[in-house]
Amino acid sequence: MRYIRGIILLLLLALPFGAEAAGPAVLVLKATAYTSSPRETDTTPRITATGARTRFGVIAVSRDLLSSDLPYGSKVKIEDLGNWYNGSGKGKYNAMLKNVVFVVEDTMNRRKHQQIDIWMPGRSLALRWGVRRVRLVVLKRGR
Hints:
Elements: H1 2-14, E1 25-34, E2 58-61, H2 63-66, E3 75-83, H3 94-97, E4 102-107, E5 115-119, H4 123-129, E6 132-140
Parallel strand pairs: 1-5, 2-4
Antiparallel strand pairs: 1-6, 2-5, 3-4, 3-6
């Protein structure tokens, strides 16, 4: 028994001081949707802030997130947590989001904070999306 305690003590001492189980960062944020319509973007509606072409899988982030948690090139998974205001429809869009790794390639207007914008192929889908609460799991931070 003393032998086993000694081995356990040695194993514990071998761990780096302050070691923690590192898991992916998880953020719960407000999410809206946008399209490549000139009325929703700038003068280059099909080109993102990084120079990438718009496509499903591209997200824009507010500038506060861009400078901290989600720099350009970050890869994330998104889960729909329902309507932003009342939580209704939780999971409604999970089938659409499930097999997609989203990439931060664009920036939102300065007035937005703690928010993402998901590129959608059409205006009607973007309007149906509305304003939702999402859980982002950060798979890779930055490029």
